[in-house]
Amino acid sequence: MTNVENRLNSLTNDFKGYSYSAAAAMGIAASSLPFDPNKQKQVAVAVGSVSGQSALAIGLAINRNKVQYQAKIITGNKMTGAGAGANWSW
Asked: CB of 70 within 8 A of CB of 34?
């Protein structure tokens, strides 16, 4: 029974490492989207990679009345995420 438990623990640890690396790659991709505050409408694409796991992020930004609205979709290794935000400038 010890061999089965050891193998199960090993698989669980591998899965956790895979998930953390994929999530980190998604974060890197999302944070790498470049947006220019001087442009009214823009689309950006970025990629990220951690420990062999990679992700792709696509974002859209719209500037109106000194407020920038952003929306992002991130996907990588059977995981998907999204984000939205706004920032003000003066």
From this structure: no
Answer whether CATH 3.30.870.10 is correct for domain 2-88: no
* Cβ proximity of 71 and 24 under 8 Å: no
The domains of the chain are located at 2-88
Within 10 angstroms of residue 87's Cβ, the number of other Cβ atoms is: 13
Helices (H), the chain: 2-31
3-class DSSP state of 2: helix
User: What span, in angstroms and rounded, lies between the C-alpha atoms of 26 and 46?
Assistant: 10
- Residue-wise pLDDT for 17-64, tens only, equals 556 667 777 777 777 777 887 888 999 888 888 777 788 888 899 998
Report CA Rg, the chain: 18
